[in-house]
Structure formats: C-alpha cells, structure tokens
User: What shape does this take?
Amino acid sequence: MSKLEEFESFAERTRKYGLISSTVTGQSLAPVILLIDDLPVVNGNATYERLKRCLTLLVQSVRIPTALLFTDHGKADSTGFNMRYPEELLQSLEYAGACKVTFNPITTNSMKKALEKICRMEQVKVSADSVEAIAKASGGDIRNAITSLQYFCLNPHSLLSQPSSSCYSIPSKESRDDANASNNRIPLTFGRDETLSLFHALGKFLHNKRESEGTTSDGGLFALNEKFTRLPLKMEAPEVVLSQAHGQARHITDFLHENVLDFLSEVATDDAWVVSSYLSDADFLLAPPNTMLASSLRSENLQHSVAASVAARGVLFGNNHPSPSRWHAIRRPKLWQVEQSLWQNKCQMWRERGYYYSDIDKHVKQCMPMHSVIATELKPVLKWLGHRLCGDFGTNDTHKKPVNGMSLGDESEDISDDDDDIEDW
Assistant: This one.
C-alpha cells in the first residue's frame, strides 16, 4: 500500500467516524484537534487529483477541528509542477470552506528578544553577541534556540574555549562588515543539525537544479567558451554537500554511475560521454593503491575526497541537457552484486584448494594474480582429469588414455589422431 493510499484510508475513517468516545467508562474526552503536518508526496496530475479530492472531502465533512500545515520553505528551489502544486491545493481547500491562517516567519530580532526575556526571567547574564549568535545558529527554530541557550548557560567559558574547527561559527557584530570576518568569529558547539542523508545529497547532484535562463553567474577573470559555461546552481558547492552527507566516496561514485543516465536526455549522447569520462577519472582515483608504493592514511583520505568531488562536479557539469522533471527511484548499484559474486567465487576457489576459512581472506588479498591461474588453468585441468577418471570417455580403457603425451596405464599405446581431441571446457 502506498503512502497516498494509507492517507486516503486515514482520511476516510476520520471523515466518517471522527473520534469514538468510550461508552464503557462514561467519561467524556477532552477537546481535541486533528493536526496534519505531513502530506504524501505526489508526482503527476493523477496522484495530485486524488490527494486534492481526498482533502476536499475531508474539509467538507470532517467531524472534529482539523488543521493542515503547509510551509513555503524551499519554494524558490521548486520548479514546474512542484511549485504550482501547493498553491493550487490551497486554493481548492479555500473554495471547499477551509480558513487560511498565515504565520510570519520568525526573524532574528524576534528570536533575540525572546532569548533576552528568558535570560531576564531566569536571572542569567549572557552577552549580546552570544545571544545574537545563538539566534542566528537556530535558523528560526525557537525550540532549538532555547535548548542552545540552556547548554550555553551551563558552562559558557568551556564552550567558547573549544577550537573553532569543531564548532559552529557566526561572525561577530563588529566584524560583520570586515573583509577578514572569517578570522574573527564566535565559536559555538551547537546549532541546527545540517547533515544530509546520502540520498538527499545524491538528489541534489542528479536533479541538477539551476537558476533561470536570464540569470548569469559572476564573471571570472577570463571568458569561457560557450560550451563550457553553465547556469549557477541552486545549492551550495558540491564539496559542502559532500561534507554534510558524510558518505564514502566509493558509495557516492557508484550510486551516481548507476543512476545518472536516468536523469540525462535520451538524445544527449555527448553529455553521457562527458559524465562517463568524469566518473572514470573518479573510479581511477578510488582504485586501491599500488602495494609497492607507500601510502599514508591522510593521503588516501585526500584522494577519496578528490574522487568524490570529481564525480559530483562531473555529473553536474556533464548533464547539460537534463531529462524532464519526474519521479526517479534511486537504484542500488549493480556493481556491488558483481563484486560480491566475484568475492564468493574467489573464496570458493581457495576452499577447493584446502584452505581453512580463517586463511581465505589472507590468501584472497595477498595472492590476487593466482586467481586467474586457478580459474583458467587449474580448475579446467582438474575438471578434465575428473571426467576421465569417472569414465566419461570410456569404461574399461580410461586408464590407458594419454595425458600430455604420457599413458596412465602400464601398457604402451600408440597415440592416434582421436586422442588429440580436447574437451570443450
């Protein structure tokens, strides 16, 4: 059952029955209000019409007070159908009889006033710069701001003495207009969690949302050829998104390689070639280091970071003719299944040679060239000898058949042309 079907079933039950009070105890329930803060994701006109019809019936015949929450967050990043969908849905609900209540967003000044009032009521002393930094770090979330203020009041000296590399930093008021504001910051060990999931980061790279045609990026020191120019991105730098996702470079590259073709236009063969070349470069950077060369952990981490950046920027740059916006399901890389099967086959070959399970991992990693020898020479010969000993080529004279010009029996025998036939492995 899809999320839309679950929501339709929930709305149908709520619309028909409401809240059924208990008749056994005879106690009356307290006044309640139904709050719907999350609607199912719809893609296309068919699912949108189903959701609109469901909400319209809910508004017209619901038995209890109901509130639906809509937000304008991210509205500027939406285009096409996804941008029109909330506005049209709100209009249809208003026509059905719903009342619209608009809340203004919480500003930094209102947040500062609320925090200063809390400080006065709790009789704690917090500097104005710290209050402003907490208000900005909360990003409009009053609950997060109050929690951050509580942590700050526990031990402000220890919080401000931590290195800024592991803290959330906000420029101070005096350095706001300074060119060197990045060197004069108030370090904070709190703030909104800005981490992204792996699939959220992949969606930013694959959907490749950019500014409109009339928008131009900042001019550089030199003019680029037209085929190398791109419109500005509607997101942070790819390296910032990668750092927020905390994903491994190999996983990100494999997911991009598996799914990027779904987001390219069917006729954009040149774009596919450019993207493939960048992904090939990233795959080369992610290759295991040569055992003859000494490599440190720091250099390997840097190499992986560069590979992830090359893969992400290559997908963004190469996708110059994206496919029409629609719902795409992110697939698991098929390469992982191939690598898993390859590993199982290698382990099976070593088990057939008589190694114990604890020694398999060591031999598989240290004797990589031996795998091709075992697969192409040893296993076919063993299979060939096994067929001969089992009587596949005869019942009584199997021991007389020659192997590499030598007879398996004691009696000598002339080698005929028929004996030169080799089994097709």
User: Anything to note?
Assistant: The chain has 15 helices and six strands. The mean pLDDT is 74.
